[in-house]
Each structure stands twice: as C-alpha cells, then as structure tokens.
C-alpha cells in the first residue's frame, strides 16, 4: 500500500479525493460500514466526516483480491455492494456484510476488506510464543465462553500457541463496538482507572483483569499475560495500536 496516499471514491464520495491520514478518533467506515481506527482515507473538508478503512480504499482503487491462506481456491473479486441476493456473512468474522466486500467467484465465500487483511500471526513480546489466526480451535472464547460461534458461518479466532487464550474475531469486534458505544474509547473517559477496568471487563467478562495487593506472583503474571493478549488482538482487529488502545491497556502496568 506504500505510495497510495490519495484515492477517489467516485460513487460514495464524488465531491473530493480522499487522503490517507491517521484518525484520532474511532469512525464508521463509509465503505464496509464497520468500526475503524487509525489510518484511513479521509475527506480533506473538515466539515465532512466521510472516511474509509485503508484496506477498503485500497480495494476500491486496485480491486486486487486479498492474500488469504484459508481460502486458497477462491478467486476473489472486490465489490462495492453485494452482487447477489440476500444477506452475506463474512467468513472471517461471521458478521453481516453491509457494504464493501470481497466475494469468491463461486459465490460461497465473502470477506470484509478489513477482515481479509488481518494478521495471521502475532508475536507475544519478550517471548517466542505466537498468537495465531485459526480456522478451528478447541479453546473457549474469552467473551462468549464457547468453542464455536453459533450459526452456519463460524468465523476465525485468535488463539495463543498454548491454546489457553482464545478470542473469536466476531466476539472481539462486537465487544469493541460495544465499548465504543459506551464511550470507553475516549481519552478523557480512559483517564479514569475505573473506566479502564469496566472496558477490559467487557472484553473478558469471566476473567480477573484488576491487579490488587496480596495476589500471588503467578496470579499477577496471569493477569499481565491476559491483558497483553487482549491488547494485541484488539490492535490486530482495529488495525494498529494507537493512543486510545495503548491508554486502555496501561492498567497492566499498575
């Protein structure tokens, strides 16, 4: 994507070309209609809030199919709207597709542009352990506590190499959207430690996320590992680590 600093969304926003910039606040992508953070293609008119994920803008400009190891036999085509009748479900996050999508020519696989570009592996800091994007897992999701998502499309999961930490991509996207609606992705809100705990607890409702005096070293280590895992998968799903995400997870240092 290097060098693609400007695009023109002739159908969605014909008035101005969109420029690649970093958004300081969360946004709803004008292309895929999904929550976005960080880099995106924005209208230069300060009174206009039209913005696209960088992946949506790249797909719109070049219409190249994504590289996906999970769907190697698919011939993906980029579409600004679903060319087929009926509701389409993203095969990575298992959530409805409302706008831009990549669709297999066979019509059986659909992907959000942002989901199609998720990192396949993430390295845990200070170790050789990996968090992997997996198609099937025997681990229970930190949010829904199930091994599989309900529904015909199961979607993928981020799972630690030891299998102890797992998060469905769908559950994480839903939890982040919920945190955004609750106002937790605002710097003035996150300045309050209690709000950080509430936001983290919403991500992992059945886990201990609050460090406290008297906890054993193993318990503290477990909390730190959990929060590091959450930080990395949230950053992967939202696109990149940035101020709001970093501020949310600073609780791990307390």
UniProtKB/TrEMBL annotation:
What the entry lists under SUPFAM superfamilies is as follows: Cysteine-rich domain (SSF57889)
- Which keywords accompany this UniProt record? Repeat
Residues of the DC1 domain:
13-56
- Has UniProt tagged this entry with the keyword DNA-binding? no
What is a single Pfam family found in this protein's UniProt entry? C1_2
What name does UniProt use for this protein?
A: DC1 domain-containing protein
Gene that produces this protein: LOC107939503
């Amino acid at each position: 994507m290097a060098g693609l600093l400007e695009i023109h969304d002739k159908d969605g926003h014909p008035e101005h070309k969109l420029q690649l910039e970093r958004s300081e606040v969360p946004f709803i992508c004008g292309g895929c209609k999904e929550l976005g953070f960080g880099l995106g293609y924005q209208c230069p008119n300060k009174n206009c809030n039209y913005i696209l994920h960088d992946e949506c803008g790249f797909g719109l400009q070049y219409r190249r199919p994504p590289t996906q190891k999970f769907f190697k036999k698919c011939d993906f085509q980029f579409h600004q709207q679903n060319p087929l009748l009926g509701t389409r479900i993203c095969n990575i996050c298992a959530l409805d597709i409302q706008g831009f999508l990549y669709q297999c020519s066979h019509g059986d696989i659909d992907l959000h542009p942002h989901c199609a570009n998720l990192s396949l592996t993430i390295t845990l800091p200070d170790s050789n352990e990996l968090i992997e994007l997996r198609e099937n897992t025997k681990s229970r999701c930190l949010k829904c506590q199930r091994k599989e998502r309900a529904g015909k499309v199961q979607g993928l999961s981020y799972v630690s190499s030891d299998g102890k930490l797992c998060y469905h991509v769908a559950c994480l996207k839903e939890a982040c959207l919920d945190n955004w609606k609750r106002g937790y992705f605002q710097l003035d809100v996150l300045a309050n430690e209690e709000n950080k705990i509430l936001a983290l607890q919403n991500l992992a409702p059945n886990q201990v996320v609050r460090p406290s005096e008297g906890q054993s070293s193993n318990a503290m280590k477990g909390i730190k590992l959990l929060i590091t895992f959450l930080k990395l998968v949230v950053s992967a799903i939202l696109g990149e680590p940035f101020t709001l995400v970093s501020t949310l997870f600073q609780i791990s240092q307390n």
